[in-house]
Design goal:
It catalyses: ATP + H2O = ADP + phosphate + H(+). GO terms for molecular function: ATP binding; ATP hydrolysis activity. With 510 residues, the protein is α/β, with parallel strands linked by helices. 50% of the residues lie in helices and 16% in strands. Helix 15 packs parallel to helix 17. The radius of gyration is 38 Å and the shape is extended. Bound molecules: adenosine-5'-triphosphate and magnesium ion.
């Protein structure tokens, strides 16, 4: 086929489509046209998964210039001069400078929180045009912002214990704000292999719809994050939400009235979400509830009616969520239709938790967040100081092997304290902090050995005290001759008692 044949063929195909379209518009009744349009639109959605927002220059009845349009124009002005290929030049207000902006139908690529966006300046020309040397006043300008449908929904952070600026409605038990935590797995300081393992686990979970259905399990996963304060438990939750594009429900158990309220809260959570209970060991006396039986409670109350009333008053304010209520919550018994949910508990004291609460199947993966390793430090150094290597790194590595420091403390030291603060100063600050931590640990160890030694002494002390007391008793029983009058009366009484006892009991061997 020659080039000419090909163009002729294409031309006749286009002409055919145009003809069919004209016939469709003219003869097909409107309801059917709408029906077809609806499905064409859906079909388009599959091929064109982008969202477009238009911002028109002139708005309202009086066609005033829109403030949003002016703000976008100003915002894009600097980007245009860097990135746009076709620019429009205007004289600035001072009549001396030149202001450059993007020309009509020009496109600029931009980024917002890691999301790729496209800005386009469009013009719409009225259909009835009269010939004129001057630009028509009817030409309308508008910007279009285009982004992928995936980013249509901004992530939200929900809470059942809101403070002032949280948004909520009477219908919902949760209030929310836009979730804007910047943490990612790249910026999280931890052992790279462990990090990869968690990422793989999350990916497997998020793609596991069929698998969970096949094995007959609710599509949910529980993570227990434990470790000392400042090791990145909350940061990891934010990184997980950003990675999976899930909402977060921060559940404050202490303000949940009872199991029924807990159930309602769970039902109101959406799919693709992470439900978090921070510091679970402090949230409820879950272990206590298990250990104390009802009978024991009742016995205590009967003995002390005041404490009973106090207890009742206190417990009317306190949460009545029980361990079994919480277990049902985790097992998802109340959410038969529940889909794609992650439940996370955090704690500083894993040993305090009831084993039932954290057994596999409930908290499927136990993740220990620990003190900062040199690998972790390298992530933070890259993140905070943009450093891959430095002559102080070996010294830091050695100190980190010798002492414990949390990632939170490392991060704090790596933050420049002045605008001009350089990387070397920050690293030196960290070295100082590490040396201090090492010295503190040494002193603590010394103190602990001293305490151990002294805790061994009290027994000896006790023995000597006993000996002294015995001697005192004897003194009282056999008063010294120079004792004062009152004392000698007491001593007489004691002597009487002793004699009395000796008559009743056999005399001890001395
Ligand atoms: N592993 C980490 N990687 C990166 N930054 C971290 C890490 N751990 C802590 N940080 C930094 O320290 C701050 C405190 O960390 P985070 O709140 O995550 O600690 P936590 O383990 O939840 O502490 P707590 O037990 O007190 O709640 C964070 O804002 C973050 O800047
Ligand atoms: Mg935390």
């Amino acid at each position: 086929m020659t080039g000419g044949d090909m163009w002729a063929g294409l031309g006749s195909t286009v002409a055919g489509i145009m003809f069919a379209w004209a016939m469709f518009q003219q003869y097909v009744p409107l309801p059917l046209r709408r029906y077809v349009a609806k499905y064409t639109h859906r079909l388009m959605g599959y091929f064109y998964p982008y969202i477009q927002i238009s911002i028109h220059e002139l708005t309202g009845e009086h066609m005033k210039r829109s403030e949003a349009y002016t703000a976008i124009e100003a915002y894009l002005s600097s980007k245009s001069s860097e990135r746009a290929r076709r620019l429009k030049a205007d004289i600035g207000k001072d009549s001396k400078s030149m202001v450059l902006s993007m020309d009509a139908n020009e496109e600029i690529t931009d980024e917002f929180k890691g999301i790729k966006l496209w800005w386009t300046l469009n013009t719409s020309i009225p259909k009835t045009q009269s010939f004129s040397f001057y630009p028509s006043a009817d030409v309308k300008h508008y910007y279009t912002l285009t982004f992928h449908n995936l980013h249509r929904k901004l992530r939200k952070l929900f809470t059942n214990n809101p403070s002032e600026n949280w948004r909520g409605s009477k219908r919902s038990m949760w209030c929310h704000v836009v979730f804007e935590h910047p943490a990612t797995f790249q910026t999280l300081a931890m052992d790279p292999e462990k990090k990869q393992e968690i990422v793989d686990d999350l990916v497997t979970f998020s793609k596991g719809k069929e698998y969970y259905a096949k094995v007959g399990k609710t599509w949910k996963r529980g993570y227990l994050l434990y470790g000392p304060p400042g090791t990145g438990k909350s940061t990891m939750i934010a990184a997980m939400a950003n990675f999976l594009n899930y909402d977060i429900y921060d559940l404050e158990l202490t303000v949940v009235k009872d199991n029924t309220e807990l159930r309602k809260l769970l039902i109101e959570t959406s799919s693709k979400s992470i439900i978090v209970i921070e510091d679970i060991d402090c949230s409820l006396d879950l272990t206590g509830q298990r250990k104390k039986t009802h009978e024991e409670d009742e016995d205590e109350e009967e003995n002390d009616p005041i404490s009973k009333r106090e207890k009742e008053e206190k417990s009317s304010k306190e949460s009545k969520v029980t361990l079994s209520g919480l277990l049902n919550f985790i097992d998802g018994l109340w959410s038969a239709c529940g889909e794609e949910r992650i439940i996370i508990f955090t704690t500083n004291h894993v040993e305090k938790l009831d084993p039932a609460l954290i057994r596999r199947g409930r908290m499927d993966k136990h993740i220990k967040l620990s003190y900062c390793s040199f690998q972790g430090f390298k992530v933070l150094a890259k993140n905070y100081l943009d450093l891959n290597s430095h002559h102080l790194f070996p010294k830091i590595c050695r100190l980190m092997e010798e002492t414990e420091i949390t990632p939170a403390d490392v991060a704090e030291n790596l933050m420049p304290k002045t605008i001009t603060g350089d990387a070397e100063t920050c690293l030196e600050n960290l070295i100082q902090a590490l040396e201090m931590a090492k010295e503190e640990a040494r002193l603590k160890a010394v103190e602990e050995t001293k305490e151990k030694e002294t805790s061994a002494k009290p027994e000896m002390k006790d023995e000597s005290l006993l000996a002294k007391e015995e001697a005192k008793d004897k003194d009282q029983a056999y008063p010294k001759e120079d004792a004062k009058e009152g004392e000698s009366i007491k001593a007489d009484e004691a002597l009487d008692k002793l004699l009395e006892r000796e008559t009743l009991e056999p005399a001890p061997d001395v």
